[in-house]
């Protein structure tokens, strides 16, 4: 395996340190090269990161910057990573061994490696399992800190969402996707009436075969002159705006798995099959009515103490205490505590992933085990479930999420610059 793509990982904050550890130079003496608030950056960290970056630049045939530029850029990278890790420590972000195991499994799957092949690759790259696990832990902490800190800074107004949905980009994004198969019976640029009639007759005969149950992909391979013929005529998922007008008009009347009539164009006669549609207007989703209790780690309440406190609250509820009263007494979610922890009905994208996973895995009436999100420790209860047509709400929430994602990178850079400017940093 090429070391330039040694392992694929989901977070991006410190991805460099996940590949080619073997590129690091041997360090005989270590020293502090930067003081960063309550942390330090060591020479060994700098030299290891320089070796990694150089190996990646060489593998990708990217011009190498000067030593001074490389040195200063990597020190700055290590400084900002340290600041984010310190924030994570202050707010009690912890990554469980199970989360690290899951990340390792994703890396194996992404690179199509068995456990044995994965271990062999680590050995060949000079990477210890413990160092890799520790780097994954750092990356995941940084990712949680960034998501929590940056998302709180982004505000998307209802008017912005509506303006986006009315825009050309928004209408394109909100339009359905169609999964199409295509067969072309081609015609030469100059064609006689007889040739055109023969091609049309053949197209009609193929349509009849297909509607009588012939396999579309097999027919496409055997009969189509289209560029996707050897792929069974598969075009894949397309929006109507990405198709010729002839195709876009034809699919408006097609039902799923329907076969179009032959469509004449300058290239010949086209036959379409609509395999499926997604993103159509009607979206019936399952909603859950949820309430929760939140306990936040702090300078006077450690992460373990917050978890234990919430476990004690949960046990009291299981022993008969009223959930709503316990939420009013103990929850630190200002927005829901006075209403007994009530969060209302769930919507796609309303809750953070850890929260949504717990909702999905909870039965109605059960009190969940304590679980961690970027906000702290939670327990939740699903009070009811229902099926609801939320087409417009889903569309608005998806647009909100898209706009938020578009702004995330810019706001992330602004946030990093601010925490860097506010920090005490001394480069030795």
Whole-angstrom Rg = 29 Å
Mean pLDDT: 86
Q: Classify the fold: give the CATH topology of the largest domain.
A: Triger factor/SurA peptide-binding fold
Main sheet attributes: strand count, strand direction, barrel closure: 4 strands, antiparallel
In CATH, what is the class of the largest domain? Mainly Alpha
CATH architecture of the largest domain: Orthogonal Bundle
- What is the count of structural domains? 3
Give the tally of β-strands: 11
Helix/strand-derived category reads alpha+beta
Q: Can you write the helix and strand succession as a string?
A: EEHHHHHHHEHHEHEEEHHHEHEEHE
Report how far the terminal alpha carbons are from each other.
39 Å
Q: Which overall shape is indicated by the principal axes computed on the Cα atoms?
A: globular
Beta-strand residue fraction = 15-25%
CATH superfamily of the largest domain: Porin chaperone SurA, peptide-binding domain
Set down the secondary structure blueprint.
Blueprint: E1 32-36, E2 39-42, H1 43-59, H2 67-91, H3 97-110, H4 115-124, H5 129-151, H6 158-166, H7 168-174, E3 177-186, H8 193-211, H9 216-223, E4 234-239, H10 245-251, E5 263-265, E6 268-278, E7 284-295, H11 303-318, H12 323-330, H13 334-337, E8 342-345, H14 353-360, E9 371-373, E10 376-389, H15 391-422, E11 425-427
Helix pairs in contact: 1-2, 2-5, 5-15, 6-7, 6-15
């Amino acid at each position: 395996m090429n070391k330039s793509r040694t392992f694929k990982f989901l977070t991006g904050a410190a991805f460099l340190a996940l590949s080619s550890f073997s590129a690091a130079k041997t360090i005989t003496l270590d020293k502090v090269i930067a003081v960063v608030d309550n942390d330090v950056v060591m020479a060994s960290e700098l030299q290891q990161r320089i070796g990694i970056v150089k190996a990646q630049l060489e593998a990708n045939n990217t011009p190498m910057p000067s030593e001074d530029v490389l040195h200063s850029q990597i020190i700055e990278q290590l400084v900002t990573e340290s600041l984010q890790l310190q924030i994570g420590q202050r707010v009690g972000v912890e990554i469980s061994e199970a989360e690290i195991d899951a990340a390792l499994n994703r890396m194996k799957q992404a690179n199509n490696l068995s456990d044995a092949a994965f271990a062999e690759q680590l050995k060949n790259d000079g990477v210890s399992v413990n160092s890799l696990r520790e780097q994954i832990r750092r990356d995941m902490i940084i990712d949680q800190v960034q998501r929590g800190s940056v998302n709180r800074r982004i505000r998307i107004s209802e008017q912005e969402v509506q303006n986006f949905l009315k825009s050309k980009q928004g209408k394109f994004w909100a339009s359905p996707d169609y999964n199409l198969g295509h067969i072309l019976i081609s015609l030469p640029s100059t064609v006689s009436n007889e040739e055109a009639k023969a091609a049309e007759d053949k197209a009609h005969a193929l349509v009849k075969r297909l509607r009588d149950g012939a396999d579309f992909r097999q027919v496409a391979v055997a009969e189509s002159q289209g560029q996707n013929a050897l792929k069974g005529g598969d075009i894949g998922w397309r929006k109507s705006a990405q198709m010729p007008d002839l195709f876009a008009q034809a699919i408006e009347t097609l039902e799923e798995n329907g076969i179009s009539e032959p469509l004449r164009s300058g290239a010949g006669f086209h036959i379409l099959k609509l395999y499926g549609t997604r993103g159509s207007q009607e979206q019936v989703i399952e909603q859950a009515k949820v309430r929760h209790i939140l306990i936040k780690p702090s300078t006077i309440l450690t992460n373990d103490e917050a978890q234990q406190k919430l476990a004690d609250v949960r046990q009291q509820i299981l022993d008969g205490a009223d959930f709503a009263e316990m939420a009013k007494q103990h929850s630190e979610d200002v927005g829901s505590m006075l209403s007994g922890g009530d969060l209302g009905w769930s919507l796609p994208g309303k809750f953070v992933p850890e929260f949504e996973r717990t909702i999905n895995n909870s039965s109605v009436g059960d009190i969940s085990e304590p679980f961690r999100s970027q906000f702290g420790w939670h327990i939740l209860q699903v009070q009811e479930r229902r099926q609801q047509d939320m087409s417009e709400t889903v569309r608005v929430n998806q647009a909100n999420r898209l706009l938020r994602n578009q702004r995330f990178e810019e706001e992330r850079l602004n946030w990093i610059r601010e925490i860097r400017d506010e920090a005490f940093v001394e480069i030795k």
